[in-house]
């Protein structure tokens, strides 16, 4: 990205608008020091991330954004498109991108700072959570799950059809209902 489009620049960080806007205001806060992704972050990087958070939030506030509309976060690998750490600072995210780009694929800055302070790394926390083999149902398996569930009902119906039908099992009920005379008490 050319430095002409930069909204903010100092020795450690540069801020520019995202080329593929997914919100009314969508900025990228990028550090000059090369860090591959959030898994490469260490405890000493907390100061840099807090600075990135502060700069991104102040630029959004200056553009008249409310606190509840702001999203600050890093994409979690394998959802990263560039092998260089960058923070997304967005406000008023378009509805169709809310879940796709800013949902489960993104780690909020607040949580990243919290995990770095507590554990010294983010890798274990997010890799464990994002492991597809440990998820209960993947999105493409949902249909299969419902189909399997439906087949259980079919099997149950087949088993019931092998049993003698209701009338044969309950002859006494059929006889009683046939002998009882129904009268209308309100006539």
TrEMBL record:
Residues 155-168 have a biased composition (Basic and acidic residues). Residues 126-154, 169-187 have a biased composition (Basic residues). InterPro entries: HIT-like, HIT-like_sf. GO terms for molecular function: hydrolase activity; nucleotide binding. PROSITE patterns: HIT_2 (PS51084). Residues 124-187 are annotated as: Disordered. It comes from the Eukaryota. It holds the Pfam family DcpS_C. Keywords: Hydrolase, Nucleotide-binding. A motif (Histidine triad motif) lies at residues 84-88. Residues 1-99 form the HIT domain. This is HIT domain-containing protein. It comes from Euplotes crassus.
